[in-house]
Protein: small monomeric GTPase
Amino acid sequence: RAGPVLLGKAVGPLAPTPRLCAPSGNSQLLVMLLGDSGVGKTCFLIQFKDGAFLSGAFIATVGIDFRNKVVTVDGMRVKLQIWDTAGQERFRSVTHAYYRDAQALLLLYDITNKASFDNIRAWLTEIHEYAQRDVVIMLLGNKADMSSERVIRSEDGETLAREYGVPFLETSAKTGMNVELAFLAIAKELKYRAGQSADEPSFQIRDYVESQKKRSSCCSFV
Ligand SMILES: Nc1nc2c(ncn2[C@@H]2O[C@H](COP(=O)(O)OP(=O)(O)OP(=O)(O)O)[C@@H](O)[C@H]2O)c(=O)[nH]1
Structure:
């Protein structure tokens, strides 16, 4: 486990003193958000935790931050501790140290940013280097509400996810589309792996996600 790190969003020269602490406790499921800077990891977490969208100026995360949320999966309460990592290259060595404690990783790209999609392979290489071998990974194409600025087709995300054998969803941290589903799917998968899903002896996360997801083309966005 790495030592204390700087947490949160930097706000330039007037930044408040960052808090110093690290995620603790091991009775919960640890989920990490990964992906390039600006893909929407912090907004994704805030949308899940508080049902709100952080609009306004983009403030990059410094180091790593975390939030807790309890979800109910098949009538059982599951505690999620969700770590929001900094996407900027200069914080990579900090975040690498946390990979091995994570049981699930949500890997985000931005459907309006080709570089963030192209970098997914590099992220997966890092994940295989630093994370647990059996970590649950899900690929998320975020900002699906920005359809007029889309440069990555949904099929491209699906193809890449299939190549790596991971489930895929398009999401919007702005509208909330598929945000809760992503967390519920990994919670269900981890519960299933822990042998707590006797009622679902053959749970498949990819099939579950496919059956539950809302496609961006079907919905109107605010
Ligand atoms: N339209 C739209 N904008 C989004 C969405 N998610 C995030 N944004 C915007 O994208 C910008 C970056 O969002 P963040 O959540 O701070 O990005 P991040 O991935 O945490 O960035 P780092 O902290 O640098 O790693 C902000 O201006 C957000 O308002 C989304 O789903 N839709």
